[in-house]
Write a structure and sequence with these properties.
single chain, mainly alpha, 18 helices, disordered N terminus
Length: 336
């Protein structure tokens, strides 16, 4: 199949990137509330609900990454040039913020700095970046064998394998290796789907337009199912991974549904200016959260107004700082 000529700006992707980072912030703000209440899930159902319906965030980021990389790779690419360009854009800010968190925010980290950088353990949101780097390294291979991986039988096989990995990891036992390899194993299929979506974006848009009401209903049901699944499993095994993990079969399906829906709904919404700030927000919002929590911790309440206010405060502050930082020439090359 011939690769379609990419547009310079696909509005849906910018919007989805903004939504994904907001979902990340919502996960982290509601998690802080759940921790403060010692996981009193019955009394804080709204907090848990917001937390669980946001679990598409990181898988959606991987899907977007596969989409954008494939869209920008119409021609044969030089592997070393590709790595240099991508790692400069992604890895330099990652190193900068890892140092900030390691030396100034979470100073009780007992791992050595090299291991922290390789695993993304300087702060809890950074685990995503080493996994993304793995996908960047294997992308040229995936791009080269696209016709093989896009064959329906191969694609279905990969999807079934991904589903099995997720089921085993969530319901049976965690994979026997650490992040980022574990996260890459549990996320590779959504990255591949992003690549395939890039080559079939017009067809997907037509599909989503035709089935938009079904997608909305299915995504809504999937979100509610994830909420009840996490709560019920937590009470069965009393393990916070039951609600923390976004690597489960239900979230896998939820991400695909909500990605298709967003791709259609936001096709004419221009969030480019916010999208370019999202990487900085991804890095800084935890620092903002740690400082603002000192005030909000005094007013923790099961009222959903508390969760919404806390989330909006962290989001607005993070985007404002990102906006101001991007006004400083060349700073974004260091900070994202």
């Amino acid at each position: 199949m011939k690769l379609e000529k990419p547009h310079i700006n696909i509005k849906s992707i910018d919007a989805m990137r903004v939504i994904a980072i907001l979902a990340v912030v919502l996960i982290h703000t509601t998690t802080r509330t759940l921790e403060a209440t010692h996981y009193a899930l019955t009394g804080y159902s709204w907090t848990l609900f917001f937390n669980q319906i946001s679990r598409f965030a990181v898988p959606l980021f991987f899907l977007i990454s596969g989409f954008v990389l494939e869209l920008c790779s119409e021609h044969e690419i030089n592997y070393l040039t590709f790595l240099k360009k991508r790692f400069t854009k992604i890895f330099i800010p990652y190193i900068f913020w890892s140092l900030i968190y390691y030396f100034f925010v979470y100073t009780n980290n007992h791992d050595n700095l090299v291991r922290v950088i390789l695993t993304g353990n300087a702060s809890y949101q950074l685990y995503f970046i080493p996994t993304l780097c793995i996908f960047y390294m294997v992308f040229p291979l995936f791009h080269k064998i696209y016709k093989f991986i896009a064959h329906p039988l191969i694609l279905i096989s990969f999807g079934a394998l991904q589903f099995w990995f997720l089921y085993q990891d969530y319901f049976i036992k965690h994979a026997g290796f650490d992040s980022p390899q574990r996260i890459a194993t549990l996320s590779f299929f959504v990255f591949l789907l992003g690549m395939i979506a890039a080559r079939n974006k017009n067809r997907l848009l037509e599909f989503a337009k035709k089935w938009k009401y079904f997608l909305a209903g299915a995504a809504g049901y999937a979100g509610y199912y994830i909420f009840t699944e996490g709560k019920n499993l937590y009470y069965q095994i009393y393990n916070i991974e039951a609600i923390y993990s976004q690597y489960r079969p239900s979230v896998f399906v939820y991400t695909i549904l909500i990605g298709l829906l967003f791709f259609y709904v936001f096709r004419n919404v221009n969030l480019k200016k916010l999208s370019v700030l999202s990487y900085f927000v991804f890095f800084i919002h935890v620092t903002i959260l740690e400082n603002v929590w000192r005030l909000f911790s005094k007013f923790v309440s099961p009222n959903p107004f508390f969760d919404i206010t806390f989330f909006l405060t962290i989001s607005a502050t993070s985007f404002l700082i990102a906006f101001l930082a991007h006004k400083i020439p060349h700073l974004s090359k260091l900070t994202g």
